[in-house]
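During the first year of the project, the team set up a workflow for recording each protein of interest as an amino acid sequence followed immediately by a discrete structure-token representation. This format lets reviewers and collaborators read both layers of information side by side without switching files. As required by the reporting guidelines, we include two representative entries from the current panel. The first entry is reproduced here exactly as it appears in our internal archive.
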Amino acid sequence: MFRLFPLFIFTFLISSCAFQSLHRTKDINYISATTQEDLPNKNLDVYAPKKANNLPVLVFFYGGSWESGKKEMYHFLGNRLARRDVIVVIADYPLASDYQISAMQKSALAAVNWTKDNIESYGGNPDQIFVSGHSAGGHLASLIAVKEGDLEASENGKKLAGSILIDAAGLDMYGYLEETSTGEGKKYLNAFTDDPAVWKEYSSMYFLTEDLSPMLILEGGRTYPSIQASRERFMKRIEEKGIDDVTVKIYPNKKHIPMITQFLWTGGKVYKDVLGFIEEN
């Protein structure tokens, strides 16, 4: 037993690429008053292998009910994916109650456009950019995916390689708030206002088209019922539109928060799913 334990640790470190050196470039300003007058200055971090060359890129937005969170809390995700040869960009964005969902979406779009313009200098492939997020961040990623036309095109005309939504909230925020805006949903009105037209404008299911880039949806089998119900309505719309390249994977025993904290363990199924999706697209 005493010999097996060190061997196990060594095998784990090798399998997770733990010895690979990384460049972590922090606090890069991607929004300033000169570029977006209606948005606050916001920064992002880039995680990349030191010898990165033409690698796929994941732009990640964190969750926090659209009112909390910061990029520094997710360095584990950047580190671990970068050690698996994926360049990771983690961006801060405006939060409620100081800002509303329109500013959050503009900020998220600016982060992806900054990545398209600059990631080549960090060893990333601007034609292989994926958007991702957990919870409220998954909602922002979904908006970028369904409104891909708002993004700048790369030189070859490609915009997104795909999207990865991790226990995403708000795929049908309109339907959710119609039922709950005077009850449990009232707390989200700081971000989404009390205007049903705004709820619909920022519900990604209403903007689905046949041109949707490949999408991977990861959901906990024990997540919040509102997330499950919203995803089911989203997928019904996917079927009605005849969109084929959307994959849903349910993690039977996972609750909402463990859907993101599972990325702490590099040997977990989630890495196989995410890296497999990136490799295929």
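The second entry, processed by the same pipeline in the following quarter, appears below.
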Amino acid sequence: MSSPNKQKEKDKHTGNVFVVSLAFADLVVAFYPYPLVLYALFHDGWALGNTQCMVSGFLMGLSVIGSIFNITGIAVNRYCYICHSFSYSRLYSYRNTLLFVALIWALTIVAIVPNFFVGSLRYDPRVYSCTFAQNVSSSYTVAVVVVHFLVPIAVVTFCYLRIWVLVIQVRRKVKNEDSPRLRPSDLRNFITMFVVFVLFAICWAPLNLIGLAVAIDPARVGPHIPEWLFVVSYFMAYFNSCLNAIIYGLLNRNFRNEYKCIVTSVWVTRLFMTETSRAATDGRSMRSKQSLPPPLNNNESVRDRVMKE
């Protein structure tokens, strides 16, 4: 039988699988769509063909929907871990956790596929990228905002509100208990993921609200949406993918330590390569100096040297 502390550590590591999945969702846009956006920006238009446009839009959608679904999965996982700790080990075994993550990505793909039938993945010259076009189908845009944003936000809000209620109750009773129900490390991890959720909601709310308003009354609302407002809300939404790594580094001690190790290893490797290159250069210089004839002294002329040779 494993001790309670070992079981707690094992349970916490299974929850980290969702964090890795969220990190993968954030990285998807960095590997393919963002370089294409820069290419279109430098060329003042899309010059890569319709296939590349579809692939870029698909991967952008994969990243966005994968992020919100993973954030929802993390919230449900933290809710079960903190509020239903007795049944957590059975529900979130390592095998079940992998199945939950696989289910998240399967639902993500299912949620993106209808874009190809509706034809809503198009190049938008305002943001130099192939993305979801809000004005193609009003009903589909409403469905996207509801299923991809409002419902997940409602689920995450419910989970975190229940956790906050438990945290407040624990803090009130912590002085009277020798072994508090909520450990400081669990609280820090919860706060980290809560901040991730809040920033996601803040970054994505303007773009989704614009899409919902345009979908409800395209003829009246669409022409009155300023272009700068759409562009700012769009780039603010996709900038959210860069924030999660910063949040982890600021609020999570383990991530800070790993960041320091990475920076240190990169710096040490750079110094090692520099010193190795410098040593090789010095060695070649010494060998070239040894191969040269000895310098002339004051009593020996060039002519005498030639005559001796």
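For the second entry, the following points were noted during internal review. The radius of gyration is 29 Å. Residues 273-308 form one domain. Both points are flagged for discussion at the upcoming steering committee meeting.
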